[in-house]
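Why run this: before we spend reagent on co-expression, it is cheaper to look at a predicted model of the complex and decide which construct boundaries make sense. The entries below are exactly what would go into the expression plan.
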Amino acid sequence: MVIITQQRDKCIGCNYCVELAYDRWRMSKKDGKATLIGGVNRKGFYTVKVREDELEENIKAAEACPVKIIHVKHI
Amino acid sequence: MNRNGEDRIELMAPAGGFDSMQAALDAGADSIYFGVEQLNMRAKSSINFTLEDLEEIAQRCGEKNVRTYLTLNTIIYDHDLSIIKTLLNRAKEAGITAVIASDQAVIHYAKTIGVEVHISTQLNITNIETVKFYSLFADTMVLSRELSLGQVKKIADAIKKEHVVGPAGNLIELEIFGHGALCMAVSGKCYMSLHTQNSSANRGACVQNCRRKYKVIDIEDGHELEIDNEYIMSPKDLCTLNFLDQVIDTGVKVLKIEGRARAPEYVARVIGTYKEAIDAYYEGEFNQERVKTWMGQLETVYNRGFWSGYYLGQEMGEWSDKPGSLATQKKVYLGKGVHYFSKAKIAHFKIESQTVKVGDEILITGPTTGVVEFKLPPFRIDDKEATKAERGDDITFELDQIIRPSDKLYKMVDA
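The model came back. Tokens follow.
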């Protein structure tokens, strides 16, 4: 299983995660920040559990993130 | 125009948070600029305000007749268009004075809803025809930092001669950078941070890797270029204080101080010093002796060494020869505010680290308090007179300024 976490308030809206992992990320039209699809908010940290096939592209997104707010855990 | 409505150069201060904003208000700034959320050039490095802070910013500055400018000057993508509208609508409602913009989307929307526009340095204005073009949208324009004072004066003179007016019907006001960090890229348009760290300076996420040491190696033969100063991409900080008279004489109307990512005591010291210098200029007391004192004041806070930028027409840039700051002083954290006994004018602080003694140079910073600096008077621990306090002690001493639990206590030591 793969757990993806995003500390959303620090997002600067650069769009990289959407470019690299389109199935899991969208730019919010409301506030211009990236939204983690299916993410559940707990005190500003959005978390979602996904299948293994999403691992690789989300690791790329996490590495590309300029503010390092995306964390991908493979368990 | 200054905050008293006099026809003097306007001193504009950076506000990275409420503590710096208060420091700027107390130090005599005529206007402040700040970022909200992510679409400004310090999206990554400073804390930034939120939408909910706009009213408080406008209110606290408005009370002192200090103008407020919202920076909204990054590269803008389609997915940003909605938040831009939200930000500008809220800024208008809150009574923020103007927006500092570079992208046409921001300029256009602000104009549509009647928010005053200032053209950011990101648009790199270097001639009078460009000023005329943007005068269709904006009343104030920041000139490129790469111009000489002669070039600045030519543009200022042409605005008067050709009567170039903005949407408000007044002559265009020119603004230039007066003090603070410079970077090697023209008007900050740099891709080094993006290419090396995927972190775009033009989205406010510069990682400042140009400030590091570099070697230049010829890949073909392996030879290393000998470079005396290894910080080849890190210019010294801009300082115009020692020729501020020439700056004001150009006809520039606004002097901007860089530093939204700097500490509140930096804002207090730099704004306070420039304010003194501006006052001295108008009182006919701007002289080299005073310049020496002012430069000493500026050197106490964060700096990479000073140079005059391109204003005096140097052929080459001056590069920093050390990493980080050359400040002659640094702050050491001591503890936090506990209570203020307003009747007796007694401040109560909890010491959480280090030691402090009578006569130490003390700095207090906080979001409402701003910046307070003084020498520590005789104080008490547990109601007994003391000369030295350490971690765990509760100290009380007389202080005219109100302090709060949100305040932090520091001592200033030689760097």
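The CA atoms of residues 338 and 405 of chain B lie 5 Å apart. The first strand of chain B starts at residue 10 and ends at 14. Bring this page to Monday's planning discussion.
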